[in-house]
């Protein structure tokens, strides 16, 4: 029998800590090339108990990979049969706020898993329905004794999983959960910060720097491991458990252009190798300054793969670390090397205990700002019809491809919220949720709050100009021409502000503003002037600051970078609690 | 301060047990005792008043329907000195609106008690019109403070000018003791300002009217000429004139404390900005040596020509768009009183020289904010060495600092912290 701590208890009493596996004596992997590595892991597996037959089900949700998958390893550990399932509700697909690119990415990832499992003489079981109805059926049909899945730190995930664990208990099914979606144990970080999540990135980095290194990634599961728990695949497998197509989910695919970002673990690992090679070639492990090229989708970009779990964040972490130590011959890399990973971790930590993290009302860390409600303006922004080519090009790229550079995100987020349109960040967040491949719930909501100056207290004086910022980022204007082809004949001088071009030029370029391309939907100078006043009003109420200084009107969170104080002092009335009257 | 959100319910729940104890002590168990609610009703007015002052308006309103006594207290004039009318339409705002019945009650019973009044409206014209309707009815009032605030798009501008002006003049005429008025982004005009002045010239201390396009320089000059107690003024640059500055500096005038000027352009090259004579500025500063002069610029880069060519006594400068390197150089030369400088964006050339000059010449500088500019790390350290001791606010976006041979991003923060005397980090934005 497996150790007692793996047997499930009521979820609410069960801190994730107790289920985190101890670091195993297995060797770590630097470059993960699938299927070719020895797995000391397999030898460490405890012998199958003589009395009870162990039928495992591993439930894929995120973590769509076979490498560094401790929960899957637990499924195989001493099992007689193993089935890997993914649960999907096609009816829900239509209702959910998920666009076609995200579905396609997910389906490709599932297909990749299926192919990888085929090589191990198994298959992926895609079960249609909702987990609460699917599991009772499967538990009975397959005589399941063990259910394994990766720990989901997001509030909605914790609630869903709590219900499933309870249900499993009722069926006498052992539930085994392992943490592999984040680098660290998030509860530990919170604990080390006086039981509250760090609200500044610097503080977060300080705490993380005091932790032990993240747990080493595990190697992928092997054929040998699978052979020990071989499961017969029925002839009707493809009939019952196949991966749905986009059409089945209700999407029209006639005009769909090929995916710029291919989903799946194989693609992820391939990209990882290229990503590391590029770092070596560039010999620059620091954050590169943005240039025009960065705006386009990169063949070494990894963020969507981290979000879906096609790539393990720990694998990326350790690869970067080893590479740095090899190139720089120094002891430890600076935290800035892991920038992207740590931001992700930061937002996951901030969100894990806050079910209202993705909204303004009822969210203790979110400033209550009197945003405007304007569905027409929101639609123009979402569909790239604002009349500002820089904004429209970015939103077009987002809708077509599913990814935009982080500075592009700053530009459109600022434009929608505190910069120009004064529309709530929640609306922007939902659009990103639909279109953006790497939009984790926590990271997306957190970033929108940050960019709209609704939380984490950013100085709001800095406003991105929809003309100037674009022009400084890409003086050539090629990015605009690529995504807004109707403007391609405009000269650089006017391509960011076509409405200022003389009429003769507009006609010569075959694109008259107001006819072929929309007029600018707002006067930016006016808009930003009003908005800075609004923000000032809101923030001065928070901090009771009545002076003239624009900078001082933002209350700074007094988090020390050194040892934590006894209480995390924030503004006297707490951030943004709206006082209704 | 946090207003107690403890609703009456919780107070009621804790009290009875104490009340029970008191009853048992005072009366024999067999006698019929007064019910707790009657005892509650007999509390002295000033105690109920104190309790009510801790309650939100909603809770107070609910409490007022409990009994006549509490209803009387609810209508005590003291509770109605300060009121903020919130006017929002569900289609345009997430915020709740002040209940129309309550508004009616206030107009009927408390118009004469109101002293500090503000109207918060959303972007819908209806809301602004409702505000004007209320204003028109505040006939018997002695309002001291009036604020018209748009929480989103300025909807007062969509109301018919005639309607707005007539509503506003009701208050101007009837109050006779207005001291503080905020009417930014409204269609107020010269005649209404004349009415304001005619009735309130002795008491007016603060006037904020940025972005009021129907006012002319003559209109505001009239205010400066007559209202000698004026201490704070906010307006747009096109209303600023030499005459205005001189009028604010006459012997009869009190010291001016704050002067805020918004400089906004419509389209590049289409607005011509006049210059203010150096002598007018000097007169102002001579008369009010401690005056804060706050300037907010929302211009295109080409439009900065007329500004800061001569010494200008500005104290707080904000650039809402890109500002040229040259302009920042001029600021270093000609703004000796500068206290705060905030630059939204510049360009792709390092601003080292300009910053260092500002550190040298602007001895009163205590706050600086830079976004979307470029400064080399060495240049930045040089700057902080010179004025770090007096900087209370140093807000630099991380992307601004360019690592060079002397410092990289890791080292810069400790070096700067050293010179500032406290822990400092640049401002960050999430990268994902």
From TrEMBL, chain A:
Q: Which GO terms describe its biological process?
A: circadian regulation of gene expression; entrainment of circadian clock by photoperiod; negative regulation of DNA-templated transcription
Q: Where is this site: Electron transfer via tryptophanyl radical?
A: 371, 425, 448
- Annotated spans, Disordered: 558-581
Q: Which residues bind FAD?
A: 340-347, 438-440
The record's Pfam families line, in alphabetical order, gives: DNA_photolyase, FAD_binding_7
| Ranges for domain Photolyase/cryptochrome alpha/beta | 54-183
The UniProt family comment states: Belongs to the DNA photolyase class-1 family.
Specify the protein name: Photolyase/cryptochrome alpha/beta domain-containing protein
UniProt organism field: Amphiprion ocellaris
From TrEMBL, chain B:
GO BP annotations listed: regulation of circadian rhythm; rhythmic process
Q: Which UniProt keywords apply?
A: Biological rhythms, Cytoplasm, Leucine-rich repeat, Nucleus, Repeat, Ubl conjugation pathway
Q: Where in the cell is it found?
A: Cytoplasm; Nucleus
Question: Looking at the record's lineage, which domain of life comes first?
Answer: Eukaryota
- Domain F-box, which positions? 37-83
Q: Which InterPro entries match?
A: F-box-like_dom_sf, F-box_dom, LRR_dom_sf
Pathway the protein contributes to: Protein modification; protein ubiquitination
Q: Cellular component GO terms, alphabetically? A: mitochondrion; nucleus
Can you say what this protein is called? F-box domain-containing protein
Q: What is the source species?
A: Amphiprion ocellaris (Clown anemonefish)
């Amino acid at each position: 029998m497996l150790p007692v701590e793996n047997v499930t208890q009521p979820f609410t009493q069960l801190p994730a800590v107790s289920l985190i596996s101890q670091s195993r004596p297995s060797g770590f992997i630097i470059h993960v090339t699938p299927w070719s590595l020895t797995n000391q892991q397999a030898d460490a597996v405890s012998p199958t108990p003589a009395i009870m037959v162990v039928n495992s089900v591993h439930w894929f949700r995120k973590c769509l990979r076979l490498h560094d998958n401790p929960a899957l390893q637990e499924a195989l550990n001493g099992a007689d049969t193993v089935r890997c399932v993914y649960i999907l509700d096609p009816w829900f697909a239509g209702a959910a706020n998920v666009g076609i690119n995200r579905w396609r990415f997910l389906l490709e990832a599932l297909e990749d898993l299926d192919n990888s499992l085929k090589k191990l003489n198994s298959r992926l079981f895609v079960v249609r329905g909702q987990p609460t109805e699917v599991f009772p059926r499967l538990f009975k049909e397959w005589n399941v004794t063990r259910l394994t899945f990766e720990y989901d730190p997001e509030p909605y995930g914790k609630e869903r999983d709590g219900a499933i664990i309870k249900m499993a208990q009722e069926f006498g099914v052992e539930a085994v959960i392992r943490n592999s979606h984040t680098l660290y144990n998030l509860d530990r970080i919170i604990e080390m910060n006086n039981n509250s999540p760090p609200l500044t990135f610097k503080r977060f980095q300080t705490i993380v720097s005091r932790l032990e290194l993240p747990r080493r990634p595990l190697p992928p599961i092997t054929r040998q491991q699978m052979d020990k728990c071989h499961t017969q695949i029925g002839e009707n497998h493809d009939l019952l458990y196949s991966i749905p197509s986009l059409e089945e989910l209700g999407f029209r695919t006639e005009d769909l252009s090929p995916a710029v970002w291919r989903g799946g673990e194989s693609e992820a690992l391939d990209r990882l190798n290229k990503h590391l090679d590029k770092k070596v070639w560039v010999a620059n492990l620091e954050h590169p300054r943005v240039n025009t090229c960065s705006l386009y989708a990169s063949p070494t970009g990894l963020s969507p793969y981290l979000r879906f779990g096609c790539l393990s964040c720990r694998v990326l972490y350790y690869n970067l670390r080893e590479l740095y130590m090899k190139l720089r011959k120094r002891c430890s890399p600076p935290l800035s090397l892991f920038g992207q990973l740590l931001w992700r971790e930061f937002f996951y930590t901030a969100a894990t205990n806050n079910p209202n993290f993705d909204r303004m009302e009822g969210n203790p860390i979110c400033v209550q700002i009197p945003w405007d409600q304007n569905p027409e303006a929101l639609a123009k922004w979402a569909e790239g019809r604002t009349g500002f080519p820089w904004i429209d090009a970015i939103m077009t790229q987002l809708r077509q491809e599913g990814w935009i550079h982080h500075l592009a995100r700053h530009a459109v987020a600022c434009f929608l919220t505190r910069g120009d349109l004064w529309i709530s960040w929640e609306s922007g967040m939902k659009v990103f949720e639909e279109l953006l491949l790497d939009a984790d719930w926590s990271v997306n909501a957190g970033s929108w709050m940050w960019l709209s100056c609704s939380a984490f207290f950013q100085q709001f004086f800095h406003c991105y100009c929809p003309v100037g910022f674009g022009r400084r980022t890409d003086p050539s204007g090629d990015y605009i021409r690529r995504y807004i082809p109707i403007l391609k004949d405009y000269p650089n001088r006017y391509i960011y502000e076509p409405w200022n071009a003389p009429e003769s030029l507009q006609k010569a370029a075959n694109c008259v503003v107001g006819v072929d391309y929309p007029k600018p939907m707002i006067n930016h100078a006016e808009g930003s002037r009003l908005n800075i006043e609004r923000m000032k009003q809101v923030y001065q109420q928070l901090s009771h600051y009545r002076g003239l200084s624009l900078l001082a009107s933002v209350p700074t969170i007094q988090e020390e970078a050194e040892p934590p104080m006894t209480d995390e002092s924030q503004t006297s009335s707490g951030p943004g609690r709206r006082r209704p009257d | 301060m946090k207003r107690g959100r403890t609703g009456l319910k919780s107070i009621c729940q804790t009290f009875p047990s104490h009340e029970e104890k008191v009853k048992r002590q005072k009366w024999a168990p067999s006698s019929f005792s007064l019910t707790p609610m009657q005892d509650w009703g007999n509390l002295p007015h000033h105690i109920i008043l104190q309790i009510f002052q801790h309650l939100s308006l909603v809770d107070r309103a609910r409490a007022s329907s409990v009994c006549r006594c509490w209803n009387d207290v609810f209508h005590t004039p003291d509770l109605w000195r300060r009121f903020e009318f919130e006017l929002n339409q569900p289609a345009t705002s997430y915020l709740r609106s002040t209940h129309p019945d309550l508004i009616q009650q206030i107009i009927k019973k408390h118009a004469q008690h109101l002293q500090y009044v503000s109207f918060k409206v959303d972007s819908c014209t209806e809301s602004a019109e409702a505000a004007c309707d209320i204003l028109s009815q505040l006939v018997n009032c002695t309002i001291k403070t009036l604020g018209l605030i748009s929480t989103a798009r300025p909807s007062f501008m969509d109301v018919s000018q005639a309607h707005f002006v007539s509503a506003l003049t009701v208050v101007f005429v009837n109050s006779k003791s207005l001291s503080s008025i905020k009417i930014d982004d409204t269609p107020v005009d010269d005649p209404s300002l004349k009415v304001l002045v005619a009735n309130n010239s002795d008491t007016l201390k603060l006037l904020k009217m940025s972005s009021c396009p129907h006012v002319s320089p003559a209109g505001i000059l009239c205010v400066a000429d007559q209202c000698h107690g004026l201490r704070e003024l906010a307006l747009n640059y096109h209303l600023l004139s030499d005459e205005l500055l001189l009028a604010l500096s006459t012997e009869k005038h009190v010291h001016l404390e704050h002067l805020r000027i918004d400089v906004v352009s419509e389209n590049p090259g289409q607005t011509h900005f006049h210059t203010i004579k150096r002598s007018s500025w000097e007169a102002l500063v001579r008369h009010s040596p401690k005056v804060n002069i706050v300037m907010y610029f929302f211009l295109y880069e080409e439009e900065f020509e007329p500004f800061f060519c001569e010494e200008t006594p500005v104290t707080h400068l904000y650039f809402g768009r890109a500002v040229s390197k040259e302009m920042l150089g001029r600021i270093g030369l000609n703004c000796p009183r500068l206290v705060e400088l905030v630059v939204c964006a510049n360009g792709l050339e390092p601003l080292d020289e300009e910053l260092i000059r500002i550190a040298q010449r602007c001895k009163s500088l205590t706050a600086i904010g830079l976004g979307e500019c470029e400064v080399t790390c060495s240049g930045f350290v040089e700057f902080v060495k010179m004025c770090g001791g007096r900087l209370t606010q140093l807000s630099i976006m991380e992307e601004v600092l360019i690592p060079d041979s002397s410092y990289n991003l890791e080292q810069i923060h400790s070096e700067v912290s050293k010179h500032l005397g406290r822990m400092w980090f640049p401002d960050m934005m999430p990268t994902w």
